[in-house]
Each structure stands twice: as structure tokens, then as C-alpha cells.
Design brief:
With 318 residues, the chain is an alpha+beta fold. The chain is 32% helix and 24% strand. It has 15 helices and 14 strands. A seven-stranded mixed β-sheet has the order 2-1-7-6-5-4-3. Helix 3 crosses helix 4 (48-55), helix 5 crosses helix 9 (110-118) and helix 11 (198-206) crosses helix 14 (246-254). The longest helix is centred in the first third of the chain and has 10 residues, at 87-96. It is elongated, with a radius of gyration of 22 Å. The two termini are 30 Å apart.
């Protein structure tokens, strides 16, 4: 998700997600599937895993949950909301990405598998009518899911919701027609791919922070773009990149990092945030302006596997 200007991301428009948005008339044959019929008959006596297994069309999901050792967790007290891909959704993923299921089942990719599966789970019992004012939902992974409604069709990221409000003893299931894939690139990889943070990346390497920002996190980076660094007095960047100024450079960069995942709407409720270096930066956000310190926030909520990036137009200085 990449939003600009920030005012758009802070005034969350309501997105209807009512149960009747997926009535049988609108869903057509998809809502008349075996999964719909079986799940609808559940009397809330079975937990999420038992309900999915009984439906008979979530065999791949059940297999992957078992491999990731998440079955017991989803049979726990919860409550959980699961956006459950059918077997046909996994078949579509395999067709588009040859060998991906076999790859996910390898021991060395256990973390990747867990990330994908937990991206389909939202803590709490979120019935269709309960998210009428939401445009996003935070997954168990920590990354956000985008919720959109277009002409009665409800989408979670790029997946269509084809059945809703299947109540279970420890939560609720909504069926989706595609597998949801979280952002897999870390903050450094996302910044490198954006092609506008070359100076920031060079500075992070020189300060010895590059490896840290590829770690588990989560982190929020108020990232100065190349134009922001170009605004500094001539020769400043070259001076800071010298080995003897490593400590000073690190202190400047840490002022741009918050050791938590803070999205724009969450930042809007703050007046300051404590940074990685221990210093605090002021946050001033209203309908017209969004600032952190002396910098304007010009783009928000760029997802990474270990955090989120907000782009700023000025380098913050301690």
C-alpha cells in the first residue's frame, strides 16, 4: 500500500462489508459451492480448523497449517477471523507460480509459510457487518490487509470474498478465491526497489545499520528521499559518509527509525514518537499538513516484511 498525499490515508473512508454484500444473487454459482453449503450448516460447535476440514474444500490449507504447526493455535480460544482460501485458490497460485507449494513445504522455508498463513488471520471475531467503517484490517502477521468494496464485490487485497460469516466456536471464517500473499521484502529491499533512497541506503551501510534494518523488527522508517539529502549544505553527505563520522551518522539515521510498526492513521493519534536512538521526534498531523520534526511526510504506509516506510522531504537532525 502506497498512499500520497498523507491526508488521504488519514481520513479513512468507510467501506461497506455487510453480509448482504455477498448475497446469493450477487455471488451466483460461487456461493452455491460445496464449501458454502457445508460451512453454512455449521452450528458453531466446531472450531475453525474442524469447520474447514469438514467442508472438504480446504485440504491444502489444512495441510499447510499442519506443516507450519499452526493447527493447535487456531484451535485455541481465540477468537480469530480467517480469510480461508479454497483448494481451487491454491491451485490457481500453483499455476501462476510453478513449484511454490513444494517450496513452501521445505523445512528451510518454514518462516515464509508461517508468514503467509498468519497473513490470512485477523485477531478477534470480525463479522462482515463489523468492518463497515474499515478500509484495512491488521493480520496476525502484523501487516495490514486492504478491504475494498466495488459494486457489491468485497475484496481482501486482491482476493474476492465468496462466502461470509461462517461462525465457529472460536471465531469466524470468510472464504476467499485467492491466496493472500504478504510483502516478503524487508525494509532495505523495499527501499532499494523504490529507486529514490540511494543516499539513505548508502548512509545506512556506512553507519553499520543496514544489517539491523533487515532484521526481524518491526521498524517504522521516516525515510528521506534522495532529494531530501540533496537539500543539505554542500559537502554534508560526503562528510558524514567518512569512517571517522560513523557514530554521528548513526545517531542521525536512528532519529528516523521508530522500533515499532506505526501506520499513518496510528501516527495521526500521536504527538511524538521515541526513536531507535532514544530521542523523540514531534509528530504534527492534521487535514492539511503532516510533519515529523521539520520534515513533511509526502507518502505513507509502504509495507515491508519487517516494518513500514513513510517518505519525508527533509533529513531529520538531532
Amino acid at each position: 500500500m502506497y498512499t500520497t498525499p498523507i491526508a488521504l490515508s488519514l481520513v479513512l473512508a468507510s467501506a461497506p462489508f455487510a453480509a448482504d454484500a455477498l448475497s446469493s444473487d450477487q455471488c451466483g454459482s460461487q456461493c452455491g459451492s460445496k464449501a458454502k453449503a457445508t460451512l453454512a450448516a455449521n452450528e458453531v460447535g466446531k472450531d475453525i480448523v474442524e469447520t474447514a476440514v469438514a467442508a472438504g474444500e480446504f485440504n491444502t490449507l489444512a495441510r499447510l497449517l499442519t506443516k507450519a504447526e499452526l493447527v493447535e493455535a487456531l484451535q485455541g480460544e481465540g477468537p480469530f477471523t480467517v480469510f480461508a482460501p479454497k483448494d481451487s485458490a491454491f491451485a490457481k497460485l500453483a499455476k501462476e507460480n510453478e513449484g511454490i507449494l513444494e517450496t513452501l513445504l521445505k523445512e528451510e522455508n518454514a518462516g515464509m509459510l508461517t508468514n503467509i498463513l498468519t497473513y490470512h488471520v485477523v485477531p478477534g471475531k470480525v463479522m462482515a457487518k463489523d468492518v463497515v467503517e474499515l478500509t484495512t484490517a491488521t493480520s496476525l502477521l502484523g501487516q495490514r490487509l486492504d478491504v475494498t468494496v466495488t459494486e457489491g464485490t468485497v475484496m481482501i487485497d486482491g482476493a474476492k470474498v465468496i462466502a461470509t460469516d461462517i461462525e465457529c466456536s472460536n471465531g469466524v471464517i470468510h472464504v476467499v478465491d485467492s491466496v493472500l500473499l504478504p510483502e516478503s521484502k524487508n525494509l532495505v529491499e523495499v527501499a532499494a526497489g523504490a529507486k529514490q533512497f540511494n543516499t539513505l541506503l548508502a548512509a545506512a551501510r556506512a553507519a553499520g545499520l543496514g544489517e539491523a534494518l533487515t532484521g526481524e523488527g518491526p521498524f517504522t522508517i521516516f525515510a528521506p528521499n534522495d532529494e531530501a539529502f540533496a537539500k543539505l549544505p554542500k559537502g554534508t553527505v560526503q562528510e558524514l559518509l567518512k569512517p571517522e563520522n560513523k557514530e554521528r551518522l548513526a545517531s542521525i539515521l536512528k532519529l528516523h527509525v521508530v522500533p515499532a510498526r506505526v501506520y499513518a492513521d496510528q501516527a495521526a493519534k500521536l504527538t511524538e514518537a521515541e526513536t531507535l536512538g532514544g530521542l523523540k521526534v514531534k509528530i504534527d498531523i492534521n487535514e492539511k499538513h503532516a510533519m515529523v520534526g521539520a520534515a513533511n511526510i509526502i507518502a505513507t504506509d509502504i509495507e515491508a516484511s519487517n516494518g513500514v516506510v513513510h517518505v519525508i522531504d527533509t533529513v531529520l537532525l538531532p
